[in-house]
Write a structure and sequence with these properties.
Largest sheet: 8 strands, mixed
Number of strands: 18
Distance between the termini: 59 Å
Mean pLDDT: 82
Radius of gyration: 34 Å
Length: 526
């Protein structure tokens, strides 16, 4: 039996007016496991346990995090309802990208892969289920989706096309079962750069077909010319007689030219200014030697390094008692290091992408913090920076990040124990909180001169995720080893409330999964 959640909106204690069935406009997600019957036949108990774990650890938390409600699970799938189409699609992307990371080490025939369809429509809401074409279309979209993909309807696309950091591939109008009108279908491309790659593949196909067409046309023209020239040779059989006459006449011309060309060389050879040719010879050699020296400076522009702040070493009490994941409070000693004054920006990231060292081109203003970055993406950037500058750039350890974020304080926030407007970018932090993160440096710096060490974007650190600080290193180093399928995030984001911008707040997320609020800043070993 599926697990039922309370998913109705409005005043749920009052009966619907006039005794009619309650209806609402909603975004509906329908997910289904591809090849579920085959997986169950191969390992019934194991597959059931894995599916339940995915529902418990991934699907249900993702739905709640994106302000949706789980309607029911169906053994091999689920249905969820959202007020916001944007959140519905973001939730779908998170689920699919998270599953990519989970399936990375699993043989292909044993992977649990979901097909997901998302639609916006009017639905009938009952205590234990939802009905209507809004649900039916989402179900049909799920049915035609490829494993691991998210398909959305045109109604969803029109609501999210400029709001979600991803790309879309139009699959045209599709006729789906039991739906009268064709449905406009789009495939979601979580990486916005995939749009360019998809278009590139289409353009390459068109260019190839065009090339074949031109080749056929050229072959036809060539065949026509050859047949015409063969017909002409029979009519002009007497032409070769004047040809030999004509050929001897031009032959003296080359000979005359040949006799003229040696004339300067003997004159040069016999002339006294024979040192003159060597004198220009060094000049070209100097120019040619200078040209290569100028080429590297033009082809390899200097790398834009993030502005760094040097942090003196010291000791501090890491953690807090506000949340179980932040316990136990323990003393940590930090060695001197440097850390980025701001989170890495879109401009800085895109220089890495232009150098083909980072996996995608970020969108947004140059001075905005880069977002939608996985931990693996962040590692690509620091590796690029370290190689280009020959400096030991890296991600900060979790202890280094908290030490820097506190700025020498031990209060709840670096500025005190109570929230103050204008100090951080979060959902309830003041007027600057918005649908997108503010540009870096929009809020006051902490006592160490660091900006956005709380709010803005979540920030990856080097450490693997563990549920508590129990057994953590006390020397400020990163806590690695063991299960590193998830890594630690700090800072909270503009989408979170003020609890998340505390220096002690910590969270974990899958290593290889991108998410729209995730960014990072760099550190540097002296």
């Amino acid at each position: 039996m599926g697990e039922i959640r309370n998913f109705r909106s409005g005043n749920q204690n009052e009966p619907p007016p006039h005794g009619g069935m309650p209806r609402r406009l909603a975004a509906i997600i329908v997910g289904d496991i591809a090849s579920y019957s085959r997986l169950m036949q191969a390992d019934e108990e194991g597959t059931h346990v894995r599916v339940k774990r995915i529902e418990r650890d991934l699907i249900e938390p993702s739905i709640v995090e994106h302000h949706g409600s789980l309607v029911k699970t169906t053994g091999d799938g689920f249905i969820a309802i959202f007020d916001s189409p944007v959140e519905a699609v973001r939730c779908s992307i998170v689920i699919q990208q998270n599953l990519i990371g989970r399936n990375a080490s699993i043989p292909k025939h044993s992977r649990i892969e979901y097909r997901i369809g998302v639609n916006l429509g009017d639905v009938i809401v009952e205590p234990d289920d939802i009905y209507g074409d809004g649900v039916n279309i989402a179900t049909r979209l799920e049915g035609i989706a490829e494993p691991g993909q998210v398909y959305i309807s045109g109604a969803i696309y029109e609501q999210i096309k400029h709001k979600v950091v991803c790309g879309y591939e139009s699959l045209g109008d599709r006729k789906v079962k039991n739906i009268t009108d064709p449905v406009r279908v789009y495939r979601v491309l979580p990486d916005a750069d995939a749009v360019g790659r998809t278009r590139g593949r289409r353009e390459n196909t068109l260019i190839f077909l065009l090339g074949i067409t031109l080749l056929v046309i050229a072959s036809g023209v060539l065949w026509y010319l050859l047949t015409q020239s063969r017909g002409g040779t029979g009519e002009q059989a007497a032409a070769p007689t004047p040809a030999p006459v004509a050929s001897p006449s031009p032959q003296p011309l080359p000979r005359e030219a040949a006799t003229q060309t040696p004339q300067p060389s003997p004159s040069v050879a016999s002339a006294p200014p024979s040192p003159a040719p060597p004198s220009p010879a060094p000049a070209p050699s100097q120019e040619s030697s200078q040209a290569p020296s100028q080429a590297p400076s033009q082809s390899v522009p200097p790398v834009r390094e993030p502005e760094m702040i040097a942090i003196r070493g010291g000791s501090f009490a890491m953690g807090s008692n506000d949340d179980p994941t932040e316990r136990p409070v323990h003393q940590v000693t930090i060695k001197p290091f440097s850390i980025g004054k701001y989170p890495v920006t879109v401009l800085e990231w895109n220089e890495c992408a232009a150098a083909k060292a980072c996996g995608f081109t970020a969108t947004g203003k140059d001075d905005a913090p880069v977002s939608n970055v996985s931990w693996t993406d962040a590692q690509q950037y620091v590796a690029y920076l370290a190689q280009a500058t020959k400096k030991p750039y890296r991600l900060p350890s979790e202890a280094e990040w908290e030490y820097a974020a506190r700025g020498g304080t031990q209060t709840k926030y670096w500025w005190g124990d109570k929230l103050q407007p204008g100090m951080a970018g979060c959902k309830d932090c003041g007027d600057l909180a918005a649908e997108q993160p503010a540009k870096v440096g929009s809020f006051k710096p902490n006592p160490f001169g660091l900006y956005d060490m709380g709010g803005g974007v979540d920030q990856w650190v080097e450490d693997c995720w563990r549920r508590t600080h129990q057994g953590a290193p006390v020397d400020g180093s990163a806590w690695n080893g063991g299960d590193c399928s998830s890594h630690v995030l700090r800072s909270g984001s503009w989408k979170n409330d003020s609890r998340y911008v505390r220096p002690a707040n910590r969270d974990g997320y899958d290593t290889n999964v991108r998410y729209p609020t995730h960014g990072f800043r760099v550190a540097l070993t002296p």
